[in-house]
Amino acid sequence: MKEDVSVRFDNALQQARFVERPNRFILRCLLPANFQGTHPPGAGEIVEAHLADPGRLRELLVPGRKIWLREANGTGRKTRWSAVLCESPAGDSFVSLDSTLPNRLIGRALAAGVMTEFAGWSLVRPEFPLGSSRWDFLLTNPAGRRLLLEVKSVTLVEEKTALFPDALTARGAKHMRELAHIVRDGAYDGAVLFVAQRDEAECIRAAPHIDPVFAAALADAKAAGVGIYGRKCSISLTGVSLGRSLPAG
């Protein structure tokens, strides 16, 4: 099956330089001197941009690094800009800074039925509430089995290995424990899909040196029968496309 699925950016992106991160969801960036903003030509302009990724991103958000912003549509926003991409540490590729994008991308792929990992499964709905959690996707198959799928965005890469998480995630560990319990109970199947929003990743692993509790919960979920899968993305200045499968665990 052809797996040509993508999320396109609705506006052209504006290149800037990262300056600082005053809180988890705001970046300050320097627009170039020729940007036609509120400052005179030649002065450049410091702007604030919304960041849709609460992770640490320490190896990515380095002062002076190239970053690409999208001018926001609609009203009621505190910031005019949203952070979309940054350059990789090597400076030869892009990294997506939107941790919500993988859910949109995978939702489209599931609806199109193009993911070999879930061949024979059909999308029922996103955001399925069960127990004390809301699961990213509910799938079903012709035998009447139901599958809960969790999608995790990954941006940390070390020596071509994508690592999750890049910061402590009590919520992530809770999800793994609950998913293991549900699968052991037998009413549902379960799976976790890690999506590396960087093209240089060759495999995806838990990061026990960052969050040993999550790593242990993931290992227990795998032992319970939860499927562990990985994917990478192809990223450009026009959008993010679904890439090939990666070994994960």
Detailed description of the structure:
- 16% of the residues lie in helices and 41% in strands.
- The chain has 249 residues and is α+β, with helices and mostly antiparallel strands.
- It has 2 domains: 6-96, OB fold (Dihydrolipoamide Acetyltransferase, E2P) (Beta Barrel); 101-246, Trna Endonuclease, Chain: A, domain 1, CATH 3.40.1350.60.
- Strands 1-16-15-13-10-9-8 form a 7-stranded mixed beta sheet. A 5-stranded mixed beta barrel has the order 2-3-4-6-5.
- It is globular, with a radius of gyration of 19 Å.
- The two termini are 25 Å apart.
- The mean pLDDT is 93.
| CATH architect. name of the largest domain | 3-Layer(aba) Sandwich
Contiguous helical run count:
3
Helix content: 10-25%
Strand content: 35-45%
CATH topology of the largest domain: Trna Endonuclease, Chain: A, domain 1
Q: In one word, what is the shape?
A: globular
Summarize model confidence as the mean pLDDT: 93
- Supply the CATH class of the largest domain: Alpha Beta
Features:
5-stranded mixed barrel, OB fold (Dihydrolipoamide Acetyltransferase, E2P), Trna Endonuclease, Chain: A, domain 1, 2 domains, alpha+beta, 249 residues, 16% helix, 3 helices
Brief synopsis:
The protein is α+β, with helices and mostly antiparallel strands and 249 residues long. It has helices spanning 101-112, 170-185, 212-224; strands at 6-8, 14-23, 26-31, 45-50, 66-71, 81-87, 94-96, 122-130, 133-140, 146-154, 156-158, 161-164, 189-196, 203-206, 227-235, 239-246.
